[in-house]
Write a structure and sequence with these properties.
Domain HTH hxlR-type: 13-112, 177-275
Protein name: Helix-turn-helix domain-containing protein
Number of strands: 14
Order of helices and strands: EHHHHEEHHEEEEHHHHHEEHHEEEEE
Strand content: 15-25%
Organism: Streptomyces glomeratus
Oligomer: single chain
Radius of gyration: 20 Å
Number of domains: 1
Pfam family, one: HxlR
Keywords: DNA-binding, Transcription, Transcription regulation
Strand order of the largest sheet: 5-4-14
Number of helices: 13
Structural class: alpha+beta
């Protein structure tokens, strides 16, 4: 695979959104890319940095290499030793990781591993990333975006084909890697982000979630229960029909939009369907195709990977 060029997807197969969710809907994938961005390259280094088994580490490194997110390089033949290097595809994931870090930092109290601090070297300040439009630079929220399905877009094609490996409840109980506990409640199940996406598109009623996603009622109920438990959805009553329960995004749920925006942009950059894009987003204020950017909340400058300094967490310093 040429990791410097987008992957062409087969006609009728899961689209760029489905492909993205299949890759990023796994906490170990995100954590391994994060550690690679921080400078780790060797099997032993990843094993020492993360609470991961040999079998899972070997499996994930194989997947990341196959999908072009890491490049396996043999640096010694006797004995055989390999290192895993970043590619353009994995380097460009840093906005997603930064958006996850910011959301978890602001909205999730419990982490088994304290989150690091981030400093913007261009202004020498600790900062928060601000989602902005690449065309007009204006700060952007979900309500500022008009989104329609593109030629390869549909709910069916946007769901990954692989079944989820872990239920959210057991994941929380075990803790596992723990760096992104509630992010994985949204990304780590093959239907979860589809349901959150539907909520961002204005779906609120149980029957409408079921019909829109063509998903079994038990699955919809499970996801809604999980999202209410972490307070990204809340149950309300319809103003006209009080007997109708509605499930709406909370402030915490709406704040997850930068993660969704940066992840979808990454996916549609690196995975191209022959029919065309899966989702077309337009920024209402400048009427251009929305390209997400992250800017520093202190100096408003565009953030770049090399201008972000990762520091130990406040509890560790």
């Amino acid at each position: 695979m040429n990791s410097e060029q987008p992957t062409l997807l087969e006609a009728g197969a899961p689209n760029a959104i489905g492909k993205t969710l299949g890759l990023l809907g796994d906490e170990w994938t995100l954590l391994l890319v994060q550690q690679a961005i921080l400078g780790l390259t060797r099997y032993g280094q990843f094993k020492a940095a993360l609470p991961i088994s040999n079998a899972v580490l070997t499996s994930r490194l194989g997947i990341l290499t196959k999908e072009g997110l890491l490049e396996r390089n043999i640096y010694r033949t006797n004995p055989l030793r390999a290192e895993y290097l970043l590619t353009p595809r994995s380097r460009s994931l840093w906005p997603v990781l930064l958006a996850i870090w910011d959301w978890e930092r602001q909205w999730v109290a419990a982490h088994t591993t304290p989150l690091p601090r981030m400093m913007h070297t261009e202004c020498s300040q600790e900062f928060a990333p601000v989602l902005s439009c690449g065309a007009c630079t204006r700060p952007t929220a979900a309500r500022d975006i008009d989104a329609v399905w593109g030629p390869s877009g549909s709910w069916k094609r946007s769901v990954p084909t692989a079944s989820t490996r872990r239920r959210w409840e057991s994941d929380q109980a075990r803790g596992q890697a723990g760096m992104f506990p509630e992010t994985m409640a949204i990304l780590g199940n093959r239907w979860s982000l589809a349901l959150i996406g539907a909520a961002f598109r204005g779906v609120t009623r149980f029957a409408d979630f079921e019909r829109t996603l063509s998903a079994p009622p038990a699955l919809i109920a499970d996801r809604i229960k999980a999202f209410m438990a972490i307070e990204v959805l809340e149950a309300t009553r319809n103003a006209v029909r009080p007997d109708w329960a509605e499930y709406r995004l909370t402030e915490k749920g709406r704040a997850f939009f930068p993660v969704i925006a940066t992840a979808l942009h990454w996916g549609q950059t690196w995975f191209l369907a022959t029919e065309g894009p899966a989702l077309i987003e337009t920024h209402r204020f400048c009427s251009t195709v929305f390209v997400p950017e992250l800017r520093c909340d202190r100096c408003t400058k565009l953030l770049h990977r090399r201008a972000i300094l990762v520091s130990p967490s406040a509890t560790e310093s």
